[in-house]
Amino acid sequence: MPVRWLVQRRDLGLRVLAGQGDLDRPVTWAHSIELADPTPWLSGGELVLTTGLRLPPEDADGAAAYVRRLAAAGVAALGLGVGLSHPRVPPALVEAARATGLVLLEVPLPTPFVAITKALMERLAELQYEGVVRASRSQPRMTRAALRGGARAVVRELASAADAGVLLLTDDGQLLAAHPAEAADLAPGLLADTDEQEPAGVLRTRAASAVSASPHRTVTVQQVRLGLRPHGRLVLVTDHSPSPVDHLLLGHAASLLALEAEKPLRLRDEQHRVHGLVLGLLLDGALTPAAAREHLTEAGFPSQAGVRVLALRGSTPRRVLDAAAEDLAARGLPLFGAVREGCAVVLLPGDDPGAARALAGGAAARLRPRPWAGLSGVHAPADTGGALREALNAAALGPARGEELVDYESLAGQVLIADPDTRAVLAGLAQTRLGPLAAHDRTHGSELLLSLRTFLEHHGHWESAATALGIHRHTLRGRLDKARALLAVDLDSAHVRAELLLALTAWPGA
């Protein structure tokens, strides 16, 4: 409420002696106090009422110091009651108030301070009630605007309710909507690096909300987000300090805008869920070739050149799939993702191996612990299950090789395993030779299979194999001694090593 309102109350009889040009300054409280230095008990915005008991009439220096302290404390105005300590307002006090620009009011003897306080409190209560009514009327209008007109309608309704300029910006400052139309012209000025008097810097904050004021305007920024997911920033530009109701409406508008922005994301999440179910059917071989191609084509997934499977292990699968969805969207591809054997599994076009490297690189850069990726060869959509086995095998080699992405087609023995008859023979060999190691790993949490594979792929070199595994060579020797005992084979034999390598090519996820 402005000081002018009190001055215009004729029943109070207040007379303005200084600060006539600043009567629109808001006053938030009335405080009667006779201390020579009342500032420790002030917070700014008060109408200070005093009889001048501590102010000698002719003490110009004391009056100037008193007024300067009040001005520095941010009081709205000073009211001096005459007829008690002073028959009139001391000229030194008037001169000091004019010099600092502080609003100075003369309070006549018949007007008790309590009358001023009561009038002020009643008016503030009325304004609060009016604000509640305004909010109760504006919020439903804003909600209806969101349902019928989307983000632009919400911005328009907020601008009308708050009597302000409103801008909706992306998180990096790009303009999405503004009302009134000329408010759009403010966007470049708000984002520019201007001098300290301009509120530009507030838009660079990542806080949930911020306020910056200059002599000409006040900028209030509210982040638009749902949970931890940001959707931009809502900016309120006013020529006055925003009221609590303005803040309430701004927050309500930001919530509506966040929900509006979430609509396509919720639809996307539902599409990912459906695509994940389709991928599960493909991996289980439950779709005919015709049905597989139909589902992929309807989703906009190019499968004419066959499909590949990318398996990423070593990080939280759901987080990996979320990261993969963003990278695939940037390439114009839908996400067909699922979780199998503790790995995130993603379907990729057969003729786009660059997509696999982009996904593996993006996941390694953003996620901790970083995942290790394995890429299958090209398969028909109906044989996605076969591609999964290859991807899991390749991904298992990532830690041993220290490679972010292992391509199954680069592995020795993949030509043999591609033939169904040979694959059946090797699968039987793998079960016989490697089954005891896998059982021991499951029971004891050991890594005998991984250690054996690494040792064999490093041509039996203890130092290089141990380095690839990140363990001491004596630890590796201990593991392989255990494997030798379980398998009852001589690992020094080249024939035994060759047989075990072939078995490993057919072992799922080894």
SSE blueprint and pairings:
Elements: H1 3-7, E1 15-18, E2 29-32, E3 46-50, H2 60-73, E4 77-81, H3 91-100, E5 104-107, H4 113-162, E6 165-169, E7 175-179, H5 186-191, E8 209-213, E9 218-226, E10 229-238, H6 244-283, H7 289-298, E11 307-313, H8 317-330, E12 337-340, E13 343-349, H9 353-366, E14 372-375, H10 384-396, H11 398-401, E15 405-407, H12 414-418, H13 420-444, H14 448-457, H15 462-469, H16 473-487, H17 494-505
Parallel strand pairs: 2-3, 3-4, 4-5, 14-15
Antiparallel strand pairs: 1-5, 6-7, 6-10, 8-9, 9-10, 11-13, 11-14, 12-13
Helix pairs in contact: 2-3, 4-6, 8-9, 13-17, 14-15, 14-16, 15-16
Low-confidence stretches: 192-206
Structural class: alpha/beta
Based on DSSP secondary structure assignment, what is the total number of beta strands? 15
Rough outline:
elongated
| Mean pLDDT over the full residue set | 83
Helical residue percent? 40-55%
Task: Summarize the biggest pleated sheet.
Answer: 5 strands, mixed
Distance between the termini: 75 Å
Number of helices: 17
Taking all Cα atoms into account, the compactness measure Rg is: 38 Å
Binned strand content: 15-25%
Strand adjacency order, main sheet: 1-5-4-3-2
What does this structure look like?
The chain is α/β, with parallel strands linked by helices and 510 residues long. Helices cover 50% and strands 16% of the residues. The chain has helices spanning 3-7, 60-73, 91-100, 113-162, 186-191, 244-283, 289-298, 317-330, 353-366, 384-396, 398-401, 414-418, 420-444, 448-457, 462-469, 473-487, 494-505; strands at 15-18, 29-32, 46-50, 77-81, 104-107, 165-169, 175-179, 209-213, 218-226, 229-238, 307-313, 337-340, 343-349, 372-375, 405-407. The strands form three sheets. Strands 1-5-4-3-2 form a five-stranded mixed sheet. Strands 7-6-10-9-8 form a five-stranded antiparallel sheet. α13 (420-444) crosses α17 (494-505). The relative contact order is 0.06.
